[in-house]
Amino acid sequence: MNRISIDIEKWQIKPHDLWDNQWLLLTSGDFSSGEFNCMTVGWGSFGTMWNKPFAMVVVRPQRYTYQFMEKYPDFSLCAFQGEDQPALSLLGKKSGRDGNKIKLAGLTPIASSQIQAPIFQEAILAIECKKTYWHDFNPQHFLAGEIHSKYPLKDYHRVYFGEILTINATEAFNG
Known about the structure:
Blueprint: E1 4-5, H1 15-22, E2 24-30, E3 35-41, E4 44-49, E5 52-59, H2 64-71, E6 74-79, H3 85-93, H4 101-105, E7 109-110, E8 119-120, E9 125-136, E10 158-169
Antiparallel strand pairs: 1-10, 2-3, 2-6, 4-5, 5-10, 6-9, 7-8, 9-10
């Protein structure tokens, strides 16, 4: 994929569409050692926190990716073209505990430019982040009643904030 480096000030996205319809692939671990895992995510945000650009992701504790998010200092988020939606669906449903789901999905992990976690050759958008904060959801703080229905197993997400270090994407994301 032909990606270019995009300055955060020129980065153009439709955030709700990206998270809710297109999805992102969250990856954490160490590419050089081969110890990493990924999962499809549809909940998160981008913005500014502590005067830095950030990505916020959430991971439930039973997900295999959770142990990588806990162990490693960084993560990547990658977006793909529509034809890769079946691969993202597979990566969101299958666990890396049970085998090499990345190979099964037909995606190619490659080294990132600034972090340990890989990005993917096929990605049209690759965001590299350094973790800066985490917090566990507390159901006593849910102000909208319907949020409780998202947690029938009481398996509340851990929230991770990551400072965006670099963005590489196709020209379509450059404003």
